[in-house]
Amino acid sequence: MFSLCLTPNRKKEPFSGENTATYPARAHYTIEQTLSFQSFFLCETVSLMNPSNLSPENILPHRDGMLLVDSIIALDDNGAVTRSVVTAKWPFFDGRNVRAIVLIELVAQTAGIHNGWIREKKYGPTADKKGWIVGIRQARLAVDAIPLNTGLIARTENRMVFDGFRDIYGSVEWESNIIAEIMLQLLRSDVSADASG
Description:
Blueprint: E1 2-8, E2 29-35, H1 37-45, H2 56-59, E3 71-75, E4 79-85, E5 97-99, H3 102-123, E6 132-141, E7 145-147, E8 151-162, E9 165-174, E10 177-188
Antiparallel strand pairs: 1-2, 3-4, 4-8, 5-7, 6-10, 8-9, 9-10
């Protein structure tokens, strides 16, 4: 499946194990069509629904300026899609923009929604809501800053699941252009031999 996105006019190394030829980066940009697994994932998940009209507050412990996700667009066993609007309450806001590094947190929260929902499905609504220890395996940011009131779409997918460990691929779109691709590793902070999830 094809998708239209901003890509540099030079080849970049893909994430390890990925089959894409180009990625957004700080460079001279041209519009080109790219065929990739990520494009397939991004196009296909849009058709999913948000079960039970969940809100981010139902799953995430974040509140006030640290809650970056405004709504859940799609959620299923494979991934999550969320919508956010940059506000003055976001971390790294300088009066006009937020620094792009905050996109890593946005992807982590989207992954938290996905994996929290899976845990709740498995263990019921009384499942504990303990957090995850998050490691950043790789991050590519195509912009330095995002203006106030910008709408963003974040998408995540579990690439590998083992007990309380997750390997996550995430991306963030601004006006249909991918501006961040992030690989995270998540570990439940309370993982024991008899409790996985």
